[in-house]
Design goal:
The chain is 16% helix and 35% strand. By secondary structure, it is of the alpha+beta class. Helix 5 (199-225) runs parallel beside helix 7 (305-314).
Length: 821
């Protein structure tokens, strides 16, 4: 019997059945036999299909078992990572805990200092405020690194407040040698009123404010804001922020005054501004002598609490009346999930892992990756720093470091009118708290800790995860080309980089700093801002300074500025600075045009060697675009071209405050997008922790670096880079400012430095070409340079969440007595 009977080839079963029936002799037995045979065949086929399915399932199961048996955790590469301090500390390694304790023991033994321990600190005693590594002399360090001479002596820079002196002052000492110091060298003393924020004065001031305000005008706070100061179960009010009243603003050159902001204690207070501010005079070194200087309420100024109370009771001031914020997860200032929820299902986001283990190594604080090697450290005062950055063992940068952060606000309210913050006053490095795995940094990161000396702690303040180091795929090709005519080929490579990240939270703002190392010899520095904006209580005059974001909330315009030191040593320390200007030019075109006296417009490059510091202070003009290049004139390519590096900045902004006015002189570095000066040991930093107070007479006057106008040609140069962004807050900045569109950066790019792209040697590339250029029928040759595309491993499971549950202080690691306002 044929299979055609059941119409497998296009005939219907009824047609086939009819044809067979007509040809039959008519006996029903024969028909039944045919049907019976068909049933048997169907049954046999069904059994066979079921057997096939079962067999297939068994095969798949066996294959899965084999696959599972081969699948294991990805290599941890623990042998590549050793975070312990090496036995012999390199020149740039941060102070160890043992060194810190040794320095303290030595200084406590110096009777002339009369130091008290952290448990006894006050404004009218002498105590250690902070300390950190004193970066050694550059020439001595290079002699050690490059010529094998003796290493420079390890030293510490120590800041001591001499509040017990008849005329108090701040004294810095260089203490050496480490680890067992035997001498201290005093530096230039600084005025006591210039000192950074300190716990004794802030705690003392706030305590005094609570007592006086609650007893005298507590009724006003309850009626105006629905809350109370001090001991309260709910609806609590606190002084959460300060604005230093610089002598440049007040005209009082010998005073130290601060505005204290009253706010509700909610998540998060900066989006709930109140119109109650107090200016306190903190000039004395005795907390008992602190006085209330002025009070701001209802957009009016009062000389005392008594004057405010009298005006309030007589109705001569417009009374404020707002409800205390409702504390729930829908509060607009909170960071609880709300709104339109997505995705619809709780699906995990994409994640990265290291299928072959880590491809970088860390020894102490020295990192190696794909030809790069460098040292990193965390300055307590100024933040992240990198030293001795080399590519293929050739030094590119001696020092790459954050110098300072400044944020200048504008407002009608005194809280933000005078809020010209220079963040070293808060010790930027100490504001770096432990990073969160999976959100701050990829979960496969390596974390490096930091230790700080905090005035209120005897032991060093330890931050578990101050830096994260990770390799990642940027998702953008570093290079690629597809050729489908002539010689056919494809070659491309993803931009896979190593990133060193740290994040400083300075009160309300969070600043993300990335140092990124590309495989083509480029270094990228990136800064991104996020966190909460500062706002002011909305009265009509505030509309000139920002948009109204809520009933009583104005988001005030402000300018973020970041300053970096970039000490490049391109083939040695004798460098030149040259800018290549791009200029329009009209050239004769009569040879190519039928018009008489025809001209053709295009651009040309004009090389300009910059020989003096004043000429090298760049205020960028978009009318005069230029390339900024740095090189050693004795090291040229075979074609006579300087083997240079180019500085390219994507963070250009203009400081709009008039030069020499207000707080501007303390950040004179912000006048220039780029400046190049001759290296001097006495010009190590462009700013200081005193800068928020010293605009009348800056402790570090960056402008003076330029004004002496020294020759920089064929000299050891330092390049100073300023980036910034003007921010006018908007509704989408609530609750916090997203990072999108706010990233600033600059690049150090090889510019004729190599004979070709050095990333051509990277095994991360992929090349595809036909086996025959004449026909594609012969297949393809695919070159992945030994990488297996089928490696099976599972990412190592993160223990981060369990770790922080067991040690909550590893994430909320606030030192006792830390100044947070």
């Amino acid at each position: 019997m044929s299979w055609e009977f059941i119409s497998w080839k296009g005939h219907t079963s009824s047609e086939s059945f009819t044809a067979h029936k007509m040809s039959d002799s008519g006996t029903p037995g024969k028909y039944r036999r045919v049907i019976g045979v068909c049933r048997i065949v169907v049954i046999v086929l069904s059994v066979a299909v079921i057997a096939l399915i079962v067999a297939f399932a068994l095969v798949v199961s066996q294959m899965q078992n084999k696959l599972d048996s081969k699948t294991e955790s990805c290599p941890a590469s623990s042998s590549r990572i050793n975070l312990d301090p090496p036995d012999v500390l390199p020149p740039f390694h941060d102070l160890t805990r043992e060194e810190i304790l040794s320095i303290k023991e030595y200084l406590y033994g110096q009777s002339d200092l009369n130091l008290v321990k952290p448990s006894e600190i006050a404004c009218n005693v002498s105590y250690i405020y902070t300390m950190e590594l004193h970066i050694p002399n550059k020439e001595q360090t290079l002699n050690f690194l490059d010529k094998g001479r003796s290493p420079p002596e390890r030293e510490a820079s120590v800041v001591i407040f001499r509040g017990d002196r008849p005329e108090p002052y701040v004294q810095e000492y260089i203490v050496s040698p480490l680890p067992n110091p035997i001498r201290k060298k005093a530096q230039t003393p600084r005025p006591f009123r210039y000192r950074p924020l300190t716990a004794p004065e802030i705690v003392g001031a706030v305590t005094k404010l609570h007592v006086e305000i609650k007893s005298k005008v507590g009724k006003i706070l309850e009626e105006s804001y629905g809350g109370t100061l001090g001991d309260c179960a709910e609806n609590c009010l606190e002084f959460q922020m300060i604005t230093p009243m610089s002598p440049a603003s007040s005209g009082e050159t010998m005073a130290r005054k601060m505005w204290f902001w009253l706010t509700p204690v909610v998540e998060f207070w900066s989006l709930h501004p109140l119109d109650f501010l107090v200016l306190m005079d903190l000039t004395s070194n005795e907390v008992e002598k602190y006085t209330i200087d002025k009070i701001y309420y209802g957009n009016q100024m009062f000389k005392s609490l008594e004057n405010l109370l009298r005006s309030y009771e007589t109705g001569s001031v417009t009374k404020t009346k707002i409800a205390f914020p409702t504390k729930d997860k829908k509060l607009y200032s909170s960071m609880n999930r709300r709104g339109t929820l997505f995705p619809e299902e709780p699906l995990l986001q994409p994640t990265a892992f290291e299928p072959s283990g880590k491809r970088y190594s860390i020894e102490g604080r020295h990192i190696k990756y794909m030809g790069w090697d460098f040292d990193i450290r965390m300055s307590t005062i100024s933040g992240p720093q990198m030293f001795d950055i080399r590519y293929n063992n050739e030094r590119i940068v001696y020092e790459l470091s954050l110098q300072d952060i400044a944020v200048f606000y504008s407002a009608d309210s005194p809280a933000q009118r005078f809020a010209d913050y220079v963040d070293s006053v808060a010790l930027i490095g100490s504001r770096v708290r432990s990073l969160v795995s999976g959100t701050d940094c990829p979960s496969h990161s390596t974390y490096l800790s930091a230790d700080h000396v905090i005035e209120s702690l005897e032991q060093p303040f330890h931050v578990d995860r101050a830096f994260c180091v990770f390799e990642h795929n940027t998702g953008l090709p570093l290079r690629r080309h597809l050729s489908s005519s002539g010689t056919m080929f494809y070659e491309g490579m993803m931009d896979i980089v190593l990133t060193v990240r740290t994040i400083a939270t300075v009160v309300n703002y969070d600043y993300i700093f990335d140092f990124i190392f590309h495989q083509n010899g480029a270094v990228e520095v990136k800064v991104v801002s996020t966190g909460y904006i500062l706002t002011s209580f909305r009265f009509q005059p505030e509309d000139n300074y920002g948009f109204r974001l809520r009933d009583h909330v104005t988001g005030n315009i402000h300018h973020h500025m970041f300053h970096f030191k970039t000490d490049m040593d391109i083939h040695g320390t004798k460098n030149r600075f040259e800018y290549i200007e791009i200029k329009p030019i009209k050239i004769d075109n009569t040879q190519w045009s039928i018009e008489d006296r025809a001209r053709y417009t295009q651009t040309r490059m004009v090389r300009n060697q910059v020989k003096s510091e004043k000429e090298a202070a760049v205020k960028y003009s978009f009318d005069k675009p230029k390339y900024l290049t740095f090189y050693n004139n004795n090291v040229l390519s075979p074609y006579g071209v300087p083997r240079a590096y180019r500085l390219f900045t994507r963070g250009i902004s203009k400081q709009m405050v008039e030069e020499g006015t207000g707080q501007e002189p303390s950040v004179s570095w912000s006048r220039y997008q780029v400046a190049v000066t001759k290296y001097k040991e006495e010009e190590r930093r462009s700013s200081s922790m005193y800068a928020i107070w010293d605009a009348k007479d800056p402790v570090v006057n960056f402008q003076s670096f330029i004004d002496d106008n020294e020759i920089i040609n064929d000299e050891d140069q330092v390049t100073w880079v300023t980036m910034g962004i003007h921010h006018i807050p908007h509704m989408e900045d609530i609750p916090v400012t997203p990072t999108v569109g706010l990233d600033l950066g600059f690049f150090l790019l090889p510019y004729n430095y190599f004979d070709e792209d050095p990333a051509m040697g990277s095994g991360d590339a992929l090349r595809i070409e036909p086996s025959s250029q004449r026909t594609l029928n012969h297949g393809l040759n695919i070159y992945n340079y030994g990488k297996s595309g089928h490696k099976q491993c599972l990412p190592e499971q993160s223990t981060f969440m369990n770790d922080i549950k067991e040690r909550p202080n590893s994430i909320f690691d606030k030192p006792t007595g830390d100044v947070t306002i």
